[in-house]
Amino acid sequence: MGFGFLGNVFKPGTADYEKANNIYATSTYGVERDMNPGLIYQPVDIPDIQEVLTIANRSDPFTPVAIRTGGHQYSGASSTNHEGIQLDLQSTFRDPVNDLQMIRKDGKVFIRSSVSWKLQELYNFLLKNGVFLPTGQCITVCLGGHVQTGGYGMLGRSFGLLGDYITELEIVDHTGTEVTASKTSNQDLFYGFLGGSPGNLGILTHFTVEVQDDNNYQGSKGIGSSKVIASSLTPYAKHTGSTNSTNLSNNNWSAWFSRQIEKATKTKGLFVSSQIQVYGGNNSMFWKNASEATAYSWRDATVVGTWDVFYNNAQAAAEAWQKDTAAGALTYFDSNERRLLWGSYDNWDMTQVWQHYYDRTTYQRLQQIRKTHDPNGLFTANLFCVQAAK
Ligand SMILES: Cc1cc2nc3c(=O)[nH]c(=O)nc-3n(C[C@H](O)[C@H](O)[C@H](O)COP(=O)(O)OP(=O)(O)OC[C@H]3O[C@@H](n4cnc5c(N)ncnc54)[C@H](O)[C@@H]3O)c2cc1C
């Protein structure tokens, strides 16, 4: 390459490229959304990341950069087409000493972690150190994206979101400069990264998060995690919705939803997976932790539901089932169709669908933040992102 980049660079048409390019959404959107970056860079450290940004900024026109860590974004948004490049951080920051540390300060416990760990690796570290924090369930998800989109999981009602406990983000910005963001410095970046527009504001390398001490929760045994919820090789039609309804117990929702699940199980080639999580109530920490400092949407949720069908030679049936379920959900679950960034995207052109993901005030603030922190659109690698304000 003729410069100081130390990591791997993979070109299309090679076996290494094919392997690196096989992320969760490839099975479903690899062709339709052209998830084939011009080059895939796997940096080994921050100077390597800066080198890639220099190259991307130097070309005319500049080369859009898609940021990927665990590659588990269901919509395919951590990839891009041949005009862009992908910065793959899954192996970049895995030093067991420098990239995952316990910090005890003022009677509180924190960890400073890199983005490159998988949830399973984080769980092992937490268990060893007698601490815990709320996260989602899939053990192969990486922290790079997960920290930003929340961590919806079984501890959601009792502890809120992972992002609620983040105290500092370490970021490489579009110029290659290292910056930190917290509730008291670079507040806009902090807001935009946590619940905003993942992968479109800069490159997250590390973060600090407050964790809970097991000793304060006697009898707690930690949570077991699901192995792999579904194979990444199986295509899917997916939806994750949120409702603030308090009427689900008597509006016939559960009877309707059970019938939908049954229909899927009886359709040849479909395999259904659903998670229903309860978040509401006056004592809910999901409600209480809602903060102006972060951009997480729909913090008045009572229930969050995921309904996915995976299919084998049955794409039309999967899409028909998802369409039918979406129509029913408008009646029984949520008439506003409030979606979550990490799990729903029937149309991934954000300009068409942003109202499903953000309220107007949040979206407009995020647009301003994008204009300031990604002024040239370097991190616009695909359509699933908040558009910068004009
Ligand atoms: C099988 C499965 C189960 C899941 N279960 C849950 C669950 O229970 N709860 C839940 O909350 N979520 C869940 N998710 C969603 C998952 O947590 C998010 O999609 C998460 O963002 C994935 O992070 P990643 O780094 O693995 O993915 P990636 O695809 O690499 O990244 C996701 C997004 O974040 C951006 N990004 C990634 N790394 C960085 C970085 N270092 N700097 C800046 N931007 C970055 C990407 O550009 C992309 O837009 C699940 C996903 C899958 C596939």
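^ flavin-adenine dinucleotide complex. The domain at 236-356 is CATH 3.30.300 (GMP Synthetase; Chain A, domain 3). Residues 315-332 form the longest helix (18 residues).
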